[in-house]
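Deviation from plan, reported transparently: adenosine monophosphate complex.
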Amino acid sequence: MPGSYDNSNIFARILREEIPCSKVYEDAHVLAFRDIRPLAPAHILVIPRGAYTDVVDFSARASAAEIEAFWRAVAKVAKEEGLSEGGFRAIANTGLNGGQEVPHFHVHLLGGRALGPMLTRAA
Ligand code: AMP
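Because the crystal trials were delayed, the predicted structure below was used instead.
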């Protein structure tokens, strides 16, 4: 996936403001918005503005300023959404086995209830 960023993916279109989103946070490097199909009372996606396909691509090619801004935003949004105290889950689905549907790096923040085990034991 790295090196083959698809400019027509849905998050690229949200970043270009071609389609709307329910914005939670933004700065020069980062946008956070509510997932359109929430899996928990709080379900927010945090994405870099830069064109990175996944966490591996982001970590390899993003500047120190982008990486710092991204992870600071993840923590800030979690805190401001009231997730930090009770706990939450941060997930970066990556590639085929990771079940990544949108090929623009993103972290899911899930919380607002006890989330249970991370995975079931299905083979
Ligand atoms: P992933 O499987 O990790 O790539 O997750 C992609 C997520 O993007 C899913 O949870 C979708 O519900 C979410 N999603 C897809 N389209 C939109 C959209 N237009 N606005 C907000 N979330 C979206």
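The mean pLDDT is 96. We consider this an acceptable substitute for the interim report.
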